[in-house]
């Protein structure tokens, strides 16, 4: 059976005291990098924990590699490499002892690959992990994730707190992983420039809901920021915007259809392509209006 979607979430719901993940439908395609974006508290980490079965949904269906966790948890997790920004290693162990503890959990653990990445990242095997800096701990987690020939990599803020040099090195590693053509990466990050360089798809999460899940090139080609005088706005023109910010000096708005707003406003407004940062900023504030299909 050929599995086109490595991850499938259908009508997934999870309720907390002050936050809900609501009716999430998501498909992650095999062989691509999908970026998860959203503000702090939007639900990205919760969604990742549900995908990893570290947290069970109240309702809905979760399938990874076409399988459910109820009957296939061991075989699913054998094929996943994960990297979290939070500390998930045992501080009182050396990295060597941590490796001895983790290696038997994976059927394809490769000691030579692990040693290769430890050398590359300059990680001391005989030093206790509590002496590692935050950056070193992330590198150690990444070395472990890369050492068992995983098919799916799930990364939650993997470069948080890391210096720009390692962030560049990390992106190079991601590119190398994807050369295989059969690997899949899900990457949650606040660093939009990282996603712009490697992501094929972007899923934007806000208040526990998926606002959109689109191909990166579609976002780059179609989304626009429009600036102009208030007199340009009326019921007809406002329908082409997802969000509008109005001031006494004029308006700024986000549109998902740059070609239409160029025809509509011509030279009367300033129109430029929207970045991922722009999209997040405008969708989190301003006046929400009905979107165009």
Automatic annotation (TrEMBL):
Pfam families: ABC_tran. It comes from the Bacteria. Residues 1-232 form the ABC transporter domain. InterPro entries: AAA+_ATPase (IPR003593), ABC_transporter-like_ATP-bd (IPR003439), ABC_transporter-like_CS (IPR017871), ABC_Transporter_VariousFunc (IPR051782), P-loop_NTPase (IPR027417). The keyword Iron-sulfur does not apply. This is ABC-2 type transport system ATP-binding protein. GO terms for molecular function: ATP binding; ATP hydrolysis activity. CDD domains: ABC_DR_subfamily_A (cd03230). SUPFAM superfamilies: P-loop containing nucleoside triphosphate hydrolases. Gene3D superfamilies: P-loop containing nucleotide triphosphate hydrolases. PANTHER family: ABC TRANSPORTER ATP-BINDING COMPONENT, ABC TRANSPORTER ATP-BINDING PROTEIN ALBC-RELATED. SMART domains: AAA. Keywords: ATP-binding, Nucleotide-binding, Transport.
């Amino acid at each position: 059976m050929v599995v086109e979607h490595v991850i499938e979430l259908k009508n997934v719901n999870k309720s907390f005291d002050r936050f809900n993940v609501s009716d999430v439908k998501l498909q992650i395609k095999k062989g691509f990098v999908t970026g998860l974006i959203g503000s702090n508290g939007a639900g990205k980490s919760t969604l990742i924990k549900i995908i990893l079965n570290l947290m069970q949904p109240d309702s809905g269906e979760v399938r990874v590699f076409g399988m459910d966790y109820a009957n296939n948890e061991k075989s699913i997790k054998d094929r996943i490499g994960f990297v979290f920004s939070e500390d998930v290693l045992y501080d009182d162990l050396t990295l060597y002892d941590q490796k001895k503890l983790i290696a038997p959990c994976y059927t394809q653990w490769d000691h030579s690959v692990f040693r290769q990445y430890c050398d590359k990242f300059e990680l001391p095997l005989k030093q206790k992990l509590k002496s590692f800096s935050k950056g070193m701990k992330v590198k150690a987690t990444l070395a472990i994730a890369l050492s068992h020939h995983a098919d799916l990599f799930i990364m939650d803020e993997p470069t948080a707190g890391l210096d720009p040099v390692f962030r560049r090195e990390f992106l190079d590693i991601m590119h190398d992983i994807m050369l295989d053509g059969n690997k899949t990466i899900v990457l949650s990050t606040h660093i939009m420039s990282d996603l712009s360089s490697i992501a094929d798809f972007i899923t934007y999460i806000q208040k526990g809901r998926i606002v959109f899940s689109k191909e990166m090139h579609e976002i780059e080609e179609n989304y626009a920021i429009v600036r102009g005088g208030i007199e340009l706005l009326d019921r007809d023109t406002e329908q082409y915007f997802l969000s509008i910010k109005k001031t006494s000096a004029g308006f700024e708005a986000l549109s998902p259809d740059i070609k239409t707003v160029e025809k509509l406003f011509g030279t009367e407004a300033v129109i430029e392509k929207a970045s991922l940062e722009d999209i997040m900023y405008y969708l989190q504030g301003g006046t929400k209006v009905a979107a165009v299909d």
